[in-house]
Amino acid sequence: MIDFAGIHGVIFDYGGTIDSNGVHWAEVIWQAYLAENVPITKDIFRNAYIHAERTLGKNPLVKPHHTFLDMMKLKTDIQIEWLKAECYLSQKNTDDHLKYRIADYCYHYARSSVEKARPVIEQIANNYPLALVSNFYGNIAAVLTDFHIDRFFPIIIESAVVGIRKPNPQIFRMGVEALRLQANETVVIGDSYDKDIIPATEAGCQTIWLKNTGWNETTALETADLIISDFSELIKWF
Fold this sequence. Notes:
By secondary structure, this protein is α/β, with parallel strands linked by helices. The protein contains nine helices and six strands. It has a six-stranded parallel β-sheet. Helix 8 links the parallel strand 4 and strand 5. Helix 1 packs antiparallel against helix 4 (98-125), helix 2 crosses helix 3 and helix 3 (68-85) packs antiparallel against helix 4. 38% of the residues are buried. The model has no long low-confidence stretch (mean pLDDT 95).
């Protein structure tokens, strides 16, 4: 259980936490594929998703000025082109604008999620210093600005910038150090048990797990200091 009396700072994850209310982004994008009646299975889609993530991880295609919509256009372009190259899609069952419609779906999903999260973040920011610790592509500042939540996060620890990725607990230690606190005075809020909760615990932080639809099935063995199922629940705790 969390010792709220001992908390003096809060570290947020971004992707999957603030911008999708705990739903893994692969699931959101898959829903966009379903809305467009893209004739592939979920397993094939997951392979396309992994290919795009690895491609963006290896190549600096995302630029610091790119918004979330810009980034999603890059992702969906890579996914669709891979599906075509692997003969899962043909010109007959797609069109040149499919990738952009999928990106638009995801952008509006993210914008809606952030708008719902914004007042919650603002209330917490009124009482605690905040930091953002995220596996991202070097453009998180542009994304936060576009969604009007940049003012809440004067401290940003971004994997593409610092060269350390979750689940390495060192990235959370960097967030704690930037807040000038002790680890046990800091609570980490994230959607991924493997990439947020486990390494944050190893770093000595308290943890809040936003448990919704993840990449993998969970069991009854995972735990955190507090488990919630909706971002809005943070209001009652803070």
